[in-house]
Amino acid sequence: MNFIEKIGDSVIKAAQQARSVLALFFDTLYWLVAGPFKNKFVKSDSIFSQMAFAGAGSLIIAAFVSFFTGIVIAMQSAYQLARFGANIYVAPMVAVGLARELAPVLTALVVAGRVGAAIAAELGTMKVTEQIEALETMALNPIRFLVVPRFLALLIMLPCLTVLADMIGIFGGFLVGVFNLHLDPYRYMTFSFKFMQWKDVWTGLVKSVVFGITISMVGCYTGLQTKGGAEGVGKATTLSVVTSFILIILFDCLLTGLFYFMQT
Amino acid sequence: MEKEIVIKAEGVVKKFGDRTVLNGINLDIYRGETFVIMGGSGCGKSTFLRHLIGALKPDSGRVSLLGKDLSKLQEDELDAVKKKIGMSFQSSALFDSMTVGDNVALPLKEHAKLDKSVVDIVVKMKLELVGLRGFEDLMPSQLSGGMRKRVGLARAIVMDPEIVFYDEPTAGLDPIVSGVIDKLILDLSKKLSITSVVVTHDMKSVFSIADRIAMLYEGRVLEVGTPDEIRKSKNQMVQQFVSGSPDGPIKFFQQKDDYLEQLMK
């Protein structure tokens, strides 16, 4: 196979994978919407346990990451703004930067590493130990039973985590502004909210919804496709994290572009 | 009396890539009998079992279960058939995240509108049948291999199925536990008059449980008969398999190239 054939081959393979993930996504939506009409509800307790794992469980690490990110943006922008004597603009810099970009993306990356990997590993193990097949033999659809609760959990919890990350990150920047740059706390907060618009927040939340869907679909898909024992589970987990990371960055770029051109 | 056919396989062919795994299998299995499918590793018996439970679709030919052609069923109809069968998996396939009791109760909770107290009673009864009453609250990881197999069995029969499939029920178990499992399979088919289909290559268990035996070789049915008929079979391959002899028409070595040629390359 020559070089061009190889490229074509991998493009075709990637397209096929993308189609399969999309098919899984539509199946998930089908069970989510049509399931209740067929009297096949998704178990609320499994949704709640997934939400507790994905949301509450990721709280501390997501807070940790955004707190220090807030501090870092404050210091980095102060370094530039100090030259113009515009230290007070650190406040909107931190707030807008976090809400639009850093809180959704960093939270999604943290959750992809923690929750997406766990989903792929769990479903992968279930696949190689015949548990998925056992579900099917019992006439229980694995998508309704396993994918939908994880999908819903991430769809709901990732935006929640993002809002929290926004606030904690802003607080981190606030600490730098007040104690290091000696800005007036009241003025810092007024400036933050004066320049931050609703659009900054909701575009960030739209991103986090897209990231939540991406993480759950990639995790479930790679998990359900697992082949070949413990090694296969390891590969599926790695693949899930790597794919999620790439897709998060890619979708972030696309959405940022979309929102940017929407403005003008 | 005319025997009722509950499982009918007609010319089932399955290919994975270039490899033909099933090469036209015809089999009838009657209600209430214990039917054993035996054959060496890689002869396609597990693949064939997957076709019988509707997990795989044949490339050509058809499989009918309880009078219904599986390939022609809609998803809902297929689910209705699946509720009438149970399957005991080679690796037990218990759900790691659920207790033994929840594992056994799952099909009931999902498919039958029953009160929790009724479900609890049914679960206790099924666990009693496999000799594990009182283990409801343990997790699967706390059980031994034989116990897991028995829990898997209890889960397979919790919906009172008409047919139970067993994939290598005694593989990897010590002789005593194997004996216990064999006795359980017999008990269940006699007590509950269930049709049992067992895939195995454990010869001791084959002859102690089977009403009829089919031997598979390279994706084809070599011979079907009662245990006595199989023992007295004139087919060399069947004889070799039953006696477990390394020499005979079935070759252990499956290399395609000529050995000498490959060495001299």
Could you give a short description of this structure?
The complex is a heterodimer of chains A (264) and B (265). Chain A is mainly α and 264 residues long.
Would you give an account of this structure?
The complex is a heterodimer of chains A (264) and B (265). By secondary structure, chain A is mainly alpha-helical. Chain A has 9 helices and no strands. Chain A has one domain. The N and C termini of chain A lie far apart (47 Å). Chain B is α/β, with parallel strands linked by helices and 265 residues long. Chain B folds into 2 domains: 184 residues, Rossmann fold (3-Layer(aba) Sandwich), CATH 3.40.50; 65 residues, no CATH class. In chain B, 37% of the residues lie in helices and 24% in strands. In chain B, the strands form 2 sheets. Chain B has a 6-stranded mixed beta sheet, with helices on both faces. A 4-stranded antiparallel beta sheet of chain B has the order 2-1-4-5, covered by helices on one side. Chain B is globular and about 70 Å long. Chain B starts with a strand and ends with a helix. The chains are: A mainly alpha (264), B alpha/beta (265). Chains A and B meet through α5 of A and α2, β6 and α3 of B.
**CATH structural architecture of the largest domain in chain B:** 3-Layer(aba) Sandwich
Strand content of chain A: under 5%
**Average residue pLDDT of chain A:** 92
Biggest chain-to-chain interface with counts: A-B, 12 and 21 residues
What gyration radius of chain B follows from the Cα positions, in whole Å? 20 Å
Query: Biggest β-sheet of chain A, characterized?
Result: none
> What structural class should be given to the helix and strand makeup of chain A?
mainly alpha
Query: Judging from the principal axes of the Cα atoms, what is the shape of chain B?
Result: globular
Mean pLDDT of chain B: 88
Strand content of chain B: 15-25%
The assigned structural class of chain B equals alpha/beta
Distance between the termini of chain A: 47 Å
Shape of chain A: elongated
Number of helices of chain B: 10
What low-confidence regions of chain B span 5 or more consecutive residues with pLDDT below 50? none
Question: What does the main sheet of chain B amount to?
Answer: 6 strands, mixed
Q: How many helix segments of chain A?
A: 9
The domain count of chain A comes to 1
